[in-house]
Every structure is written in structure tokens, then in C-alpha cells.
Amino acid sequence: MYSVSYQRAGTIAEAAKLLEAGDAAALSGGMTLIPAMKTRLSAPSTIVDLRHIPALKGIRATGRRVTIAAATTHAEVAASAEVKGVCPALCHLAAHIGDPHVRHMGTIGGSVANNDPAADYPAALLAMEATIVTNKRDIAADQFFKGLFETALEEGEIITAVTFEAPDQAGYAKFPNPASRYAMTGVFVARRSGQVRAAVTGAGDDGVFRSAEVETALSRSFDPAALQGVSVPAGNLMGDIHASPEYRANLIVVMAKRAVAQANG
Known about the structure:
This protein has eleven helices and 14 strands. The chain has helices spanning 12-19, 33-38, 74-79, 81-86, 88-95, 100-105, 108-114, 121-127, 141-144, 212-220, 245-264, and strands spanning 5-8, 24-27, 46-49, 59-62, 65-69, 131-134, 138-140, 145-147, 150-151, 159-165, 169-176, 183-192, 195-201, 209-210. Strand 12 (183-192) and strand 13 (195-201) form a beta hairpin.
């Protein structure tokens, strides 16, 4: 490690001001930033710790409208009775992120801001038409995720919460890397008023995306059998040492079937 200045913010306004000063990086759970700093992939001169800001903590549900503050950990989402009451699929998703250490340190805001192409939350937020709330504006998920590790966030902009209207039905299934538990392919399906959205993570060569093929089939019948024979193009999918684009194309359909079965269960 190298010399770095550590600043603990007490309010969102204080954090925003600290982030304006020089080469600063926001720290939430640290699950991405700290390893990146250790390998010198990231070298901020200042770390601004957001974990102790009261306004960035907590889960609130009013009817089917859910708001999750950015510094809420994966473990807290997984255990939330409020979330489970209206969207158990999100609890299931959070409960299968990484290992217990990651789930008790990592936060929803940090995951969304980093937008790792294999992260779980982006698929859920995109499928549920969520809104990402920052200290400056509200951003629809459709406009937020821009590509590999890229988002609509501007310099110094801080995610304060994510909010969404719970769908009528939802499910999430992923094929995890056995070591990291990152999704080699994950599919979140959400059905609201007869309309279906299906978002895929871990497979796209440009990050999270919606599958038109899966959505079309499930719009006709929200049942795993509706996906029988559905083919997803492999042209824009990721290929690496773990799986070829063609293998991931098949996994999208398989995971979508499992996600729908969960939603219907």
C-alpha cells in the first residue's frame, strides 16, 4: 500500500465536499476499492469513508414502494422483513452475493456505483425499473448503467439510495463462479401488470442488459415452459476462461427458467 489520506464523513454534504478536493475516492464497503488499491489499479490520494453517515443507512417500505439507503449491506437486505414482504427475490439475490464477509461489509450503493459486469444488483434494478437516487438527482436504471464499470454518475456524485416499486412477481437465478461467487450468468425476471422485464448480468461484453428474447417469450406465458426452444444470440456475450459466449447464451435461458420457477413458487 501507499500513503493515502483517510477522511470520515459525517454527512452527505461533508462527503461531497471532501470528494471535490483533489484525487479522492468514496469508500463504502470497500469490497472493490481496497483490492484495487492493493494492486495499484486505483491510487486515490484521499479516501472518503461513507459508512458512518446516518442518512445512508436503512430500509424503508411504504406499501410496495421500497427505498434502500446506499450504505445498507447485502446481509441487511437479505435479512430485511420489509423487503421480503414485497420482493423476496431481492432478499434471495442479496443472500447469495459472495461469502459472509462480503455480505456483511459490501453495500448496495457500492455495488451499483461500481457496476461490475458480473455484479448481481444491476440486474435486479434494471429488471424492476428502479431509480438510483444521488445527492444531485434521480436516475432511472435504464439510463444509469452505461457499460463495463461505467455509470451515469458524474465526478463527485454520491449514490444515496435506490428505490423501486415491487413487481407483482420476481425471481433471480445465477450460475456462480465457484471461487468468487460472482455470476458467470445471472437473470432477474420481473412481472408487473402483465409486462415482463428480464435483465442479464455476468454474460454481456458491455455489462448488464435486457434480453428481448426472454422477455418476448415470457410476455406470452410467464412459465418456464415458455422458454423452451428460445435462443439467445451469442454475438455480444462475454467469452473467457470460465465460459464461451455460446455457453453463456445457453445459460441465460437456463437461468431465466429457474428465475421464473422461483417467481411462480
